[in-house]
Design goal:
InterPro entries: PepSY. Helices cover 34% and strands 32% of the residues. The chain is built from 2 helices and 4 strands. The protein has helices at 2-22, 40-49; strands spanning 53-60, 63-70, 73-79, 86-91. 15% of the residues are buried.
Length: 92
């Protein structure tokens, strides 16, 4: 019983740390209701126009998060779905 409890605690801590490591903390781009957002494809198009090879995109909080590669390096680009302005960039 004691071993099982120790393993369960270790797994819980490991999962929590993994989630924290994946979260980058940037999620606030707009207060506009989602029904009024511009399409995510337009954020991807802006990244492509800026020279990024877009790999994928997703919604992160109230931002469009676009994953792109430029000059062999991976970037996370955070766009406001309200006006498609670039709010934050993280180089990986």
């Amino acid at each position: 019983m004691k071993v099982i409890r120790v393993v369960a605690i270790a797994l819980t801590i490991g999962i929590g740390m993994g989630s924290a490591a994946m979260a980058d903390g940037f999620k606030n781009c707009t207060k506009l209701d989602k029904a009024s957002w511009k399409p995510a494809s337009e954020a991807e198009a802006k990244a492509k126009a800026a020279g990024y090879e877009v790999r994928r995109s997703k919604v992160e909080g109230s931002c469009y998060e676009v994953y792109g590669v430029k000059e062999g390096k991976l970037y996370e680009l955070f766009y406001s779905p309200e006006d498609l302005s670039l709010k934050h960039t993280i180089a990986k």
